Amino acid sequence: RFAGQVTLDGPSGTGKSSVARAAATRLGAAYLDTGAMYRAATVAVLDAGVDPEDAEAVARVVAAARIEVGTTAATERVEVDGTDVAERIRGAEVTRNVSAVSAVPAVRRQLVDQQRDLVAAADAVVVEGRDIGTVVLPGATVKIYLTAAPEARAQRRAAQLGLTTPEEVAALAADLRRRDECDSSRADSPLRPAADAVVVDSTDLDREAVVDRVVDLALAAA
Ligand code: C5P
């Protein structure tokens, strides 16, 4: 049985979440979605009526918020101060503002500490995010960086959301580009592959093939 830490980083729309969940299930491992934590922090910021670009105010609100996420692949549990926000964190307003919130260093320090505590409690875990292999768990058993061509990512996201018109797909592609640009260019923990990460390009692979590759890499490294 697998024991260790698998990190799965990469930009939005690569199928990271569904791959991470499926791999965790097959490995009998816990699963941590760190993006859900930054999204939950964004809910707290929006509900406080604070400007997401106001780093000081954002840090203050998030420091006072109790953010809780589950660590099993089967069910998603995301709460802010005891309120279930699992659906809300996937909404457009949160998605639009999450990159600004997650660029605030104090927010990152707080959530990274929490992520390390959650990971320490599991003997086998798959953790997905942007900076897991580079910052959160530099000593992980196996690090994977999942990429895909921008057009493939926009198409996939559109299919997920049930959007079909060329205008809708183009708007989505623009939003993905903006978020990736923001995540890759921020000063604190930018999105990039760790030096020792295996880069997997999912443009021409179906989900099962990517899951197989992740599971094989994990078992080979353990
Ligand atoms: O993965 P997901 O799309 O849910 O992540 C939402 C946002 O949270 C990302 O665009 C990024 O700004 C932020 N994030 C981050 N570091 C992580 C995970 C997510 O900055 N480890």
Structure description:
The structure is a single chain. The protein is of the alpha/beta class and 222 residues long. It contains nine helices and eight strands. The protein has a five-stranded parallel sheet with strand order 2-6-1-7-8, with helices on both faces. A three-stranded antiparallel sheet has the order 3-4-5, with helices on one face. Strand 4 and strand 5 (83-84) form a beta hairpin. The longest helix has 20 residues, at 166-185. It starts with a strand and ends with a helix. The model has no long low-confidence stretch (mean pLDDT 95). Cytidine-5'-monophosphate binds at residues 12, 34-35, 38-39, 98-99, 102, 129-132, 179, 183.
What key attributes describe this structure?
222 residues; alpha/beta; five-stranded parallel sheet; 8 strands; 15% strand; binds cytidine-5'-monophosphate; Cytidylate_kinase_dom; ATP binding; Cytidylate_kin; dCMP kinase activity; transferase
Strand content: 15-25%
> Largest sheet, if any?
5 strands, parallel
Low-confidence stretches: none
The end-to-end distance, rounded to whole angstroms, is 9 Å
Radius of gyration: 17 Å
The helix content is 40-55%
Please tally the helical runs, counting DSSP H or I stretches of 4 or more residues.
Answer: 9
Strand ordering within the main sheet: 2-6-1-7-8
Q: What is the general shape? A: globular
Element order: H for helix, E for strand:
EHEHHEEEHHEHEHHEH
Bound molecules: cytidine-5'-monophosphate
Structural class per helix/strand content?
A: alpha/beta
The beta-strand count equals 8
EC number: 2.7.4.25
Main location: cytoplasm
InterPro entries: Cytidylate_kin, Cytidylate_kinase_dom, P-loop_NTPase
Enzyme class: transferase
